[in-house]
Amino acid sequence: MLAKRARPFFSHAVQSRLPLCGLGFLLLGCAQKDPERGPKLGFAKDIKGIMTHSCIECHGIEAEESDLDLRTLEAIISGGESGPAIVPGHPEESLLLEMIHDEHMPPEGELLTKDKIELLHKWIAAGAKP
Ligand code: HEC
């Protein structure tokens, strides 16, 4: 008897809540697709590793060639003898990228892969965030 009475109540509750659930998932789905919330490139997360692997031996650890330290974002922006190594938002004005594109840097060892160069380009274009 009790079970029989409880049943209609249960299904009514489920039916009335389902659309709300659906709406919740929809909103969540939309929020995740919002490009503003997409993964952002950052120095610590995406760039420091490239510098450590290919550059800081000569620009920070064993030497500071051209007075350029590539270990921190602040040092990269303040730059070396020729001025700022990067101009946030302007990859085309960034000496660091020019040197890499021209295959002038690194002067010895492996050159950077296309993917890494593209990542650097995107990071600078997006404002060179920390
Ligand atoms: C083997 C040592 C060595 C490595 C590794 C190296 N560099 Fe250099 N870098 C130099 C030397 C030497 C100079 C100065 C002479 C010249 O421009 O060739 C220089 C100069 C520069 C300059 C010009 C700085 C100024 O203000 O004039 C930039 C920018 C630069 N390097 C970026 C990089 C980047 C980015 C990397 C990593 C992808 C890198 N370098 C790796 C030795 C190195």
Keywords summarizing the entry:
single chain; 130 residues; mainly alpha; 2 domains; globular
Question: What does this 3D model show about the protein?
Answer:
The protein is mainly alpha-helical. The protein folds into two domains: about 1-35; about 45-125, no CATH class. It is about 55% helix and about 0% strand. It is built from five helices and no strands. It has helices at about 1-35, 45-55, 75-80, 95-100, 115-125. It starts with a helix and ends in a 5-residue tail after the last helix. Residues about 30-35 have low confidence and may be disordered. The structure holds heme C (HEC).
Distance between the termini: 66 Å
- What percentage of amino acids are in beta strands? under 5%
Arithmetic mean of pLDDT: 84
* Cα radius of gyration in angstroms: 26 Å
Largest sheet: none
As an assembly, this protein is single chain
Helix and strand layout, with pairings?
Blueprint: H1 2-33, H2 43-54, H3 73-78, H4 95-101, H5 114-125
Bound molecules: heme C (HEC).
Summarize the model shown.
The chain is mainly α and 130 residues long. The protein has five helices and no strands. The chain has helices at 2-33, 43-54, 73-78, 95-101, 114-125.
